[in-house]
Amino acid sequence: MTSDALKRLLRWAALALVLHGLWEAAQLPLYTLWEDSDRRRIFAYLLHCIAGDVLIGIALFLLVAAIFRDSDWPGPRPWRGGLVMITAGLAYTVFSEWYNVYQLHAWSYAAAMPLVAGIGLAPLMQWLIVPILMIVLFRRGR
């Protein structure tokens, strides 16, 4: 990996950290964990989710870079790359939410969480909106 490619990946990771971090904090009340009295547990859960989102974002960036054989894909092919990223991100989110909510019971939705076919609308919207924002901001920083 060239130093330019590494710089692009680190910029992408930084954007993922900020934007997914804000989204995760905003959607936290839509999960039952928000009602937990142990604030340290809530904070640890939040950090865990943000770290996972950053790793997923990095993996998807690399997937698109591999498909296009170009780590600068947000420049010349932002929307084709974005479509791949959003499709893969949504597919992973549907599986992850279903598996963690209904199979592992690792977390659960609060009554306020709108559902689409049993999957939380907030995490679905996250993997539609945040990647688009990341691409737009990434391109502006070029």
- Widest β-sheet, arrangement of strands: 1-2
Q: What would you call the shape? A: elongated
The largest β sheet comes out as: 2 strands, antiparallel
Please provide the count of β strands. 2
Poorly predicted residue ranges: none
Span between termini: 19 Å
Please write the string of helix (H) and strand (E) elements: HHHEEH
- What is the arithmetic mean of pLDDT? 96
Helical proportion, percent range: over 70%
The radius of gyration computed from the alpha-carbon positions, rounded to a whole number of angstroms, is 16 Å
What count of helical segments does DSSP give? Answer: 4
Q: What structural category do the secondary elements indicate?
A: mainly alpha
Strand content bin: under 5%
Give me the secondary-structure topology:
Elements: H1 3-27, H2 39-68, H3 78-103, E1 115-116, E2 119-120, H4 121-140
Antiparallel strand pairs: 1-2
Helix pairs in contact: 1-2, 1-4, 2-3, 3-4
Please name the defining characteristics of this protein.
71% helix, elongated, mainly alpha, two-stranded antiparallel ribbon, 4 helices, 142 residues
What does this 3D model show about the protein?
This protein is mainly alpha-helical. Helix content is about 70%, strand content about 5%. It is built from four helices and two strands; from the N terminus they run αααββα. The protein has a two-stranded antiparallel sheet. Strand 1 and strand 2 form a beta hairpin. Helix 1 runs antiparallel to helix 4 and helix 2 crosses helix 3. It is elongated and about 45 Å long. The two termini are about 20 Å apart. The mean pLDDT is about 95.
